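User: Could you write out the 3D structure of this protein bound to adenosine-5'-diphosphate? I've included everything you need below.
Assistant: Certainly. Input first, then the structure.
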Amino acid sequence: MTVDTTRYKIVLVDDNIATLSQGKSLLKAFFMVFTIKSAAALFKHLEHDIPDLILLDVEMPGMDGFEAIAILKADIRYRDIPVIFLTSRSDEASERKGFSLGAADYITKPFSGPLLQKRISNQLLYKRVEAAVRDSSGSLEVMAGEITKANERIRMLLDKTPLCARLWDSDGKMIDCNEAAVEFFGFMDKEECMRRYSELYPEYQPDGQLSVEKVKKCLDKAFKEGKYAFEWTYKMLDGTLIPAEVVLVKVEYRDGYIVAGYTRDLREQITLIKEMRRAELAEESSKAKSRFLANMSHEMRTPLNVVLGITGLMLEEDTPAPDYKENLMKIGAAGNTLLRLINDVLDISKIEAGKLELTPVTYEVPSLLNEIITFSMLRIEDRPITFVLNINENLPYNLYGDDLRVKQIINNLLSNAFKYTKKGTVSLGITAEPDRSMSGQVWMNITVSDTGIGIHEEDIKKLFTDYYQVESETNRKTEGTGLGLSITKRLVEMMNGEISVESEFEKGSVYRVRIRQKCYSTTTIGPAVMENIKNFRYTEDKKIARNKLVRTDLSFAKVLVVDDMQPNLDVAAGLLGKYKMQVDCVLNGQGAVDLIKNKKPVYNAIFMDHMMPGGMDGIETAIAIRNLGTEYAQQIPIIALTANAIAGTEDMFYSNGFQDFISKPINIMHLDSILRTWINPDFSFAKNGKM
Ligand code: ADP
């Protein structure tokens, strides 16, 4: 590149006029040349003009060249002006001194024109290059400074964020992480964090994936899709599991791509959600409790009103009025309603507490059907209702499931069908089909339909809600708790099934249920069973006699009843007395132990209350009796009378010396079967002399 040098200002300082004019004539074609006769004059000139270069003589009167250069180099205004000595002093010491004082060059006289011009040009070139380098290095420095600052800011942003950030290269290797990650994961520094990061993977993630596989999959997705968010659980170095949300973002880096990952700790959020849910549940449960209490008190008041009202009326009469039996029946019916209410409430509370467990057994379908038929017969009462049973001989003979709960489902639906159908037809259909998703299982399809009062469309949605009862003129609320269908629905759900209803107001309703039962055998109920119940029809013309209890004469027997409550003793003694037995009563356990010890009289059985606060309870008394040691005391049947409805108590009775148990209120059918089992005319301790 050629540079026009004529605009460069050169000052030639020499006390010798001849040198000045020679220099000027040699250089003027190339530079703008100023000639100055002394160092003092040079400084004057510098005050108003700064040259690009100074040619300086050494030996001058007044201030010599060495003194002058020393001043120039010490002054910030002039020190960058290159100074070339142009002198007749050619000794090495002078040269050294000149250079040491900051001279750019040292030329001795005599000099040739081209040499001088070249040496000047060189200095000017150096100066330009130096200036250019200084300029550019200045801007480079600024740029480098800016970049460093920007980097610091980015690093600060990255390090001071609460998000843990990491960078992975395309081979899935972590190449950087921030301070938040180091701190969060509990490492000493970034290097340790990157080296040991994979130690934070539990073997499996909560979604069942192997951690190593999941991390690979997620990185792949981020590289492919640009961004990928997922949930991840860390196993911290101390073993704590921490749920987190991770977002991976693909970023362009140098000639390829890397992935930046950001982790957010979800513990606080999860705790917050849990707390909110707990608060919601507490509120829901408190509302449900109030609703429950209001409903219970309402439902109990209705039958209690009947019991107390009619009892009051009857007590006012000195002699029984002619309708006393009818009144007693009303009291009995109200009592039964109360009992059903208590049973339903127990079921609901067990279901809600998660305590209701299905007890699967292998059961016979024909005997389930028989019991359902008997139940239906009793529900028809005297009404003009046709009961149709639609089953098929291909129904499995044996199924494995909780038959009592299956019966409860069917009976609840039938009970409603009969309750809300004054006349017409109630039908029950049962079919079974293999469950294709699981071998050894069948779907039991149950359909209960009626031609009764039906249900309005707007009420159907609410049917399976606790305590819900449809109020209408045709459906006067006489009996029921509003719990039947919600219990049914929950039982169906426990059997992995479904329930649905279709209904038309004043036309009738159809309930469809599907439940899963296990089926281990291919035997079907077959034609023989079908012969008995095929297309079973029961109408008012074919009424079966109501099972009126015919009691056997047990006048040979003596029984002992133990209960700490006189009214309970009266009820038990009254019911047992119907069998013409001798019934003795004691109000506490010790009395019973004494009687058995004295063997006077010798009893055939003991009926004993299970809970008797104050003295020995039923279990302690039973143990004390068995411990009397005689064969009589060890073998006499002891039957528990219990008001305890909690499942599992049966085993407790058997393991504590009781032979059997009967629930209060005492069901006369159950009592009858207990007596048939345990009181036998062929066997009596007195008769056999087994004392
Ligand atoms: P409840 O013990 O009161 O019968 P459920 O939960 O069994 O309680 O039934 C809830 C309500 O659904 C009943 O009060 C009744 O109004 C309505 N319902 C149920 N089944 C039928 C049906 N087959 N026909 C007409 N109404 C029905």
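Residues 472-478, 535-547 have pLDDT under 50 and may be disordered.
User: Perfect, thank you.
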